[in-house]
Amino acid sequence: MSDAAVKGALAWLERRGTKANLEGMKRYAIPSEGAFGVSMKDVQGLAKELGRSQALATKLWDTGRYEARLCACYVGEPDRITAAEMDRWCKGFSNWAEVDTACFALFDRTPHAWKKVKAWSARRGEFEKRAAFALLWGLTVHDKAATDARFLEGLALIEQAAADERHWVKKAVNMALRATGKRNKALNAAAIKVAKRLAASDDPAPRWIGKDALRELEGYHSRKATKEPA
Question: Which one of 53, 88, 96, 178 has the fewest beta carbons within 10 angstroms of its own beta carbon?
Fold first, then answer.
């Protein structure tokens, strides 16, 4: 993939950047340094024009520009990105939006996803560790073939990480717990048990995660059933 394609993509993004979008990034705690201020809709539009290419995705990611990295997540090929490349991107995460976009749009569709959940859950960096649970969260939605046993292992990782008080880790752990409990009734029961143990903790981080998750998980599938058409 030629450097001209990367330069063209950066020029396209620069033309569509706005000050309003840059200000909006700040409101959502996304650093605006190295950003053009392009809407996600436009980023996705550019990715659609470019098409799937892991070689191009790698070059876009390596620019370090915020929207180029988001675009890379939609351009990347799940069956061609390597485990080593995923690790490299993970190590370079600089904000929650890069983490979540990579995990939800690309990483959770790769054959390496489940191994990375476990491996990244042991990382020290805040965004690297968030990636483990954002990835688990994405897998609850996109991996239709995964067994409950996979997610039970994920619940064990959630419980281990719940004491991490860092904001972006804590939020992802919470979302992964809630998403796991919404996958099916059996996992809902298992997730509720974890949430109750966390809610009973004397430590603030696990207590918040558990109590917040319980509000959504208790009775979730009963409520869902009443809303589904007969």
Answer: 88
